[in-house]
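Following up on my earlier thread - several people asked me to post the actual chain instead of describing it. Fair enough. Here it is, all 180 residues.
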Amino acid sequence: MRIRLSVSLCLVFAAFVTLLSALPESGANAQTTGKSTSTQRKGSGLPIPRFASLRSDEVNVRTGPGTRYPIEWVFKRKAMPVEIVAEFENWRKIRDWQGASGWVHQSLLTGKRSFIIPSKPARLHKTPASSAEVVAKLEPEVVGEIRSCAGDWCRVKVSGASGWVRRTGLWGVYKSEPIN
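Reply from S.P.:
Thanks for posting it. Predicted structure:
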């Protein structure tokens, strides 16, 4: 009787697996295959990863995508650049220039591009050339606005001063990303 029961269980399990494989793809499986289904949770449809900046002086960073998740820390610096690394509905998982990550509501982010000087000072030049006049020296953790980027240089604005900084001296723009 025991042998017959285990054979029957195997047949039931095999039928169950066959039935599951015949069902439409689940949302999780659809994300890995790139197909969309009605159960899939959609984000903005914009490319990931991408840079954005904080819209407010106070931004709660949560452990998960929703208000039911606890606040892990609070950003206190408007215009700070962040990298969006994941999306879930109206929530964005972000990473800061130091590598810390968490979830924020999309309404607290803006597509306006900003940068931070990460670790060593950078020079703000009058024109996009190393030999050009230095307008200012930008210290680590200085935040500013990116106006445009082409090649190795980005045109930026910091506290009323405008000029050009080598792309490699900034965090908030990708290696070869054009910004107009």
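The first strand starts at residue 50 and ends at 54. That should answer part of your original question.
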